[in-house]
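User: I'm new to structure prediction. If I give you an amino acid sequence, what do you actually give back? Let's try with this one:
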Amino acid sequence: MRCRHCGLELSLNMIDLGITPLANAYLSKKALGTAEKVFPLRVLVCEGCWLAQTEDYSKPDEIFEPDYAYFSGYSSTWVEHCRSYSERMIERFSLGPMSSVVEVASNDGTLLRYFFDAGMNCTGIEPTLGTAEAARGLGLKVVTEFLTYGLAERLRMSGLRADLLVANNVLAHVPDVNDFAMACAMLLSDDGVATFEFPHLHELIAGSEFDTIYHEHYSYLSLLSVESVFSQAGLAVFDVEQISTHGGSLRVYAQRSDLGIHELLPSVSAVRDVERDAGLAGPHAYSHLQVEADRIRDELREFLLGARTAGRSVAAYGAAAKGNTLLNYAGVDSDLVMFVVDRNPAKQGKFLPGSRIEIVAEDRLVEMRPDYILVLPWNLLTELRPQLSYIAEWSGAIVTAVPELTVW
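Assistant: Good question. You get back a string of structure tokens that encode the predicted 3D arrangement of the chain. For your 408 residues, that looks like this:
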């Protein structure tokens, strides 16, 4: 396989998580009688541009199907993140009623609606029909296609120019990262700004966050690799912020490299230095994630087997994609975890891919009173612990597995 960005032959292995189904391919009850599609889940690192990337097996239209079940509005933490982001961008870049905001991967409109409510001209680009319809229900204009350079050219010819282009948690999801970056540059107005948020590869490795690896994420990004991609696409990074979402992310600010008006800030070189000091510009930093993943897998299995032997019951909370990576790598199924609770009605009544654990509404927790609740989206623990405080009524305990097995 060759690097998706620079074309160099890949040989440096970061992690191999075996053969797994797609992390968001939730199963209907009827589908339980059929075989699931499975793909190798392995990440390689380019020693030319340092882009970490999955092997090519699954296609975007196999992952982002019309009934794609992730709706961003079900997380209060994410809703607050979107509100705060919109306020900061409006103030920092003096956005007003004449401004045009384009969000790529706009999902159900949770973020874009804040700009829409402020009177701005807003356009979402979202290929999954269910989430796009939810956004249209808020009054938003949505283009239901994957963003490509060809689509960007058509939209620009129709008069669309973005004063602010938002691409949060989508850069890692595109197989042709070069085409996507060029599309974003094409959509910017002359002095427009694009912001990209993505889980930071440095934090993924440092925090042993191997469960954030799944087929939906084609790339695992550092500032070093992103600057290489952007430079080729005609984008220049002028600011970087380290933020807490998804276990540690970067928010990168970019402008057109030929027309940009924003000065380069010291934050860019500061993050570059952090990455270089951590060894991300060399092969050795990528060698220990496999060891950590194996340790976490073994700790979780030991805990769940011990709970079953002791007659203790375990349920899970949050039917998150990262949870599916964890459960499938650990070989966990309904023999060890009774069910998983999720507040999203689109997931309830379905089953997790691979492990085939049933997804249920939260009232099942009160009914069954499990001894342990394994929180799969550990990055939302601060939000979820108060929500689950009622399990103290039966002396229930919360458990997380990443970065180490912890009973709260």
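You can read the tokens as a compact description of the fold. Here is one thing that stands out. The two ends are 43 Å apart (CA to CA).
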